[in-house]
Amino acid sequence: VADPEQGDIIDETLDLFRANSLFRNFEIKGPADRLLIILILYISDCLAKIGSARTVPTQIEASKMLNTLSVDNLAIPGDA
What we know:
Blueprint: H1 9-21, H2 31-51, H3 59-71
Helix pairs in contact: 1-2, 2-3
């Protein structure tokens, strides 16, 4: 069971999203860095999907859009 006092990779990604999304290059030092990059790309896709709506979606509409996005294949950098 995870310690609720300690942050996890999702918390770290959300905390660092804005700063990390401005970088064009990342130095990948290990699997945690790779996961961080993948999560940043996924969050960017989520925001782009919601932002591309013609009108501001309601919470239910946004939830449906993100559920649809979650079952799509995410293009992961470095994978063919």
